[in-house]
Amino acid sequence: MIGRIAGRIEWRGADHVLIDVRGVGYIVHVSDRTLAALPGVGEACALYTELLVREDLLQLFGFPTMLEKEWHRLLTTVQGVGAKAAMAILGTLGAEGTARAITLGDARAIQAAPGIGPKIAQRVVLELKSKAPAIMAQGSSLMAEAVVTEEEAAPAPAVKAKPARSAPARPAVARAAYSADALSALLNLGYGQADAAQAVATVSGEAPEADTAELIRKALKLLMPKT
């Protein structure tokens, strides 16, 4: 499985790029949004990839983030949504916009993607709405891991040794991390800081053992308009 490609762009097509990786050229299909964000010919780039394998066809699809790759994989589990249709949705809305539309049940936003009709859009929302919080939580975790990796890569300043202190309770640290990730996901969905923070705090108090995905799911129920 080819999960990531890093090399130099040799060609830019209407819906794909040719990336040279140490003398081997890979054709990678990308969305309009991703294509617009990529550098020009001759410049370096890196994409996370998904390999589509069929009897008579091998195709690589490229994504700027692991979160978008996960959304593409999830979208293709919906009946009637192939790899290109999933790319069209992500190209129109992006990973965050797709998450927002599905979480809020906004089938019209999904339908705005080229080639996506009302029945398919409604099916996407209905089948993936319950799965969206888990992917959003995964995205928050990936962002947090990236920050930690950057911090670990930086040289540590010299400090004098200090007396050892007892570490804070691990469950408390985990709960704080879950709440922070859930709040970040709600803010990305467009909720206000005060409303999102209040919802997360309420849910965290009622369900102290909830992980990020469960916090998001329960907080969304609190934030949904009452009918």
From TrEMBL:
Keyword Nucleus included in the entry's annotation: no
Region Domain III: start-end pairs: 174-227
Main location: cytoplasm
GO cellular component: cytoplasm; Holliday junction helicase complex; Holliday junction resolvase complex
Pfam family, one: RuvA_C
Keyword Cytoplasm (UniProt): yes
GO MF annotation list: ATP binding; four-way junction DNA binding; four-way junction helicase activity
Region named Domain I: 1-64
Keyword line: Cytoplasm, DNA damage, DNA recombination, DNA repair, DNA-binding
BP terms from Gene Ontology: DNA recombination; DNA repair
Cell location: Cytoplasm
InterPro entries: DNA_helicase_Holl-junc_RuvA_I, Hlx-hairpin-Hlx_DNA-bd_motif, NA-bd_OB-fold, RuvA, RuvA_2-like, RuvA_C, RuvA_C_sf
Domain Helix-hairpin-helix DNA-binding motif class: 73-92, 108-127
Domain comment in the entry: Has three domains with a flexible linker between the domains II and III and assumes an 'L' shape. Domain III is highly mobile and contacts RuvB.
Function (record text): The RuvA-RuvB-RuvC complex processes Holliday junction (HJ) DNA during genetic recombination and DNA repair, while the RuvA-RuvB complex plays an important role in the rescue of blocked DNA replication forks via replication fork reversal (RFR). RuvA specifically binds to HJ cruciform DNA, conferring on it an open structure. The RuvB hexamer acts as an ATP-dependent pump, pulling dsDNA into and through the RuvAB complex. HJ branch migration allows RuvC to scan DNA until it finds its consensus sequence, where it cleaves and resolves the cruciform DNA.
Protein family according to the UniProt entry: Belongs to the RuvA family.
Subunit annotation: Homotetramer. Forms an RuvA(8)-RuvB(12)-Holliday junction (HJ) complex. HJ DNA is sandwiched between 2 RuvA tetramers; dsDNA enters through RuvA and exits via RuvB. An RuvB hexamer assembles on each DNA strand where it exits the tetramer. Each RuvB hexamer is contacted by two RuvA subunits (via domain III) on 2 adjacent RuvB subunits; this complex drives branch migration. In the full resolvosome a probable DNA-RuvA(4)-RuvB(12)-RuvC(2) complex forms which resolves the HJ.
Classification via HAMAP family: DNA_HJ_migration_RuvA (MF_00031)
Protein name, as recorded: Holliday junction branch migration complex subunit RuvA
Source organism per UniProt: Gemmobacter lutimaris
Gene: ruvA
